[in-house]
Amino acid sequence: MNMNELIIPEKKDVERAVKSLYNFLFPRVHSIKKKDNDLCINCQEEQFAAILSLLTDDGDKVSKKFFKNIDALKEELIKDAQFILESDPAATQLMEVIAIYPGFFAIFSYRVAHAIALLKVPLLPRMITEYAHKVTGIDIHPLARIGHPFSIDHGTGIVIGETTIIGKNVKLYQGVTLGALSVDKSKASKKRHPTIEDNVILYAGCTILGGETVIGRNSVIGGNTWLTESIAPFSVVYHKSEIIVRNHSNYKEPINFII
C-alpha cells in the first residue's frame, strides 16, 4: 500500500482495541460494562484486522499472523508481571501488578506494538505506544528491543528511544531516559540509543545517552546520574551531591547561587 493511500485509524478505535486485547489476555481484570466479545479471540482478530486494513493491503492476514503468536506474547507478559512483583516490596500479588501498575500496562502496550512493528505495519505500533504514553507517562518506542523479564516501577517520565537495546532482568525506575546524543535527522538510520545488558538496575532520574554507550551486565546506575560513555560489567555508578547546612551567623552567599 502506498503511504499516500493510508487512512489513519481513529485514535479511539486503536485505544478500544488495545484495551479489549488487554481484557482478553487478562480476563480477571473486569469492567462492569465489559462486553462478551472482549473474551472472544475471533472478535479480537476481526477488530485488529479492521484497523490493519486501513494501513496494509491484507489486514486479515497480518492480524492472523499477530494472533498466531498471542499465547507466547502472554507468557512473556506474565513473566514481566512476575518480575515486577518480585522486585517491588509494595506489590502483594500478581494480579495487582497486572490490573493496577502503569509500568506493566506500558510494557504490555510496547510488546503488542513491537510485535506489530515486526510485521512491517506503519503507524499503528506508534499509535499504540503513544496511547500508553498518554495514560502512564512512559514513552517506549515500538522498535526498541527489550528482553524479558523486564520491570518498570512507578515509571512516570521514562523515555526509551527507538534503537535502544535492553537485555533480560533489567529494572527501571521513574524518570529514566535512554536517549540519543544528537537529534540530527541524518542519523535516523543509525543506532543512536544505548545498550543495557542483563541484570542492570537504573534508578530514578538517570540519563544514559548515545548509540555506542553500553551499560555492562549486573551494573547499578544510581539516581540522577548522567552517562554518555560505556560502563564495565558489575559497576556501580552514582551521583554524589553536596549538602551544606547553614545558620544565620555563618552563612556566606555562594558564588554559584542562581535565581
Task: Explain this structure.
There is one protein chain. This protein is of the alpha/beta class and 259 residues long. It folds into two domains: 8-137, serine acetyltransferase, domain 1; 144-239, Hexapeptide repeat proteins (UDP N-Acetylglucosamine Acyltransferase, domain 1), CATH 2.160.10.10. Helix content is 35%, strand content 12%. The protein is built from seven helices and 14 strands. A five-stranded parallel beta sheet has the order 1-4-7-10-13. It has a five-stranded parallel beta sheet with strand order 3-6-9-12-14. It is globular, with a radius of gyration of 21 Å.
CATH fold-type name of the largest domain = serine acetyltransferase, domain 1
User: How many strand segments?
Assistant: 14
CATH hierarchy, class of the largest domain: Mainly Alpha
CATH architectural arrangement of the largest domain: Orthogonal Bundle
Radius of gyration: 21 Å
Oligomeric description of these chains: single chain
Provide the CATH superfamily of the largest domain.
serine acetyltransferase, domain 1
Figure out the total of helices: 7
Side by side, the strands of the main sheet go 1-4-7-10-13
Structural class: alpha/beta
State the domain count.
Answer: 2
Distance between the termini: 55 Å
Main beta-sheet strand count, sense and barrel state:
5 strands, parallel
Helix-residue proportion: 25-40%
Mean pLDDT: 90
**Low-confidence sequence ranges:** none
Quick one: overall form?
A: globular
Secondary-structure element order, as H and E? HHHHHHHEEEEEEEEEEEEEE
Strand % is 5-15%
